[in-house]
Amino acid sequence: EPLLARAARRYLPTLYANARAVADGRHQFTATLDGKEYPGLAAVPFQAWRRVVLQRELARLQAAVGVRQLLERTGCLEWLERDGVLETHYPEGDRLPHCTPRALSRASRLRLRIFGTPHHLEAGGDAAP
User: Fold this and answer.
1) pTM over 0.85
2) Residues 6+ apart with CB under 8 A from 75
3) Tens digits of residue pLDDT in 54-65
4) Which residue in 24, 51, 94, 101 has the most C-beta neighbors within 10 A?
């Protein structure tokens, strides 16, 4: 349950805000996570489509009352059902989008290796194995 509660606080609000932006034809959106605002995030149709995939899976689990109760208790259900299925402008299918990986400088890679990300620190994890 802690992982689902964290998804309800961090991942699903961003996924919803992105989907809403894509449906509205905007290229950027603002997400508020744990009371902190993150403006100017890029709206990504693929991520909006991923929300639709989660919603479809939820619909398939309608008979599993325990799953819905768990998602409601953790706060996930609200984000998955808000505004229903939104237009994604993403072609249907299970293919991943074509993308070019971002090139990081040696200094950036080293910094990530040593210090991790803010999420690693928050979770109490180490940056390096």
Assistant:
1) no
2) 4, 5, 8, 9, 12
3) 898 888 887 677
4) 51
What is the distance between the alpha carbons of residues 38 and 84, in angstroms, rounded to a whole number? 24
Q: Per DSSP, what are the bridge partners of residue 36? A: 33
Give the per-residue pLDDT at 66: 82
Unique residue bearing structure tokens 């709206």: 43
Contact status, residue 45 vs residue 29, Cβ threshold 8 Å: no
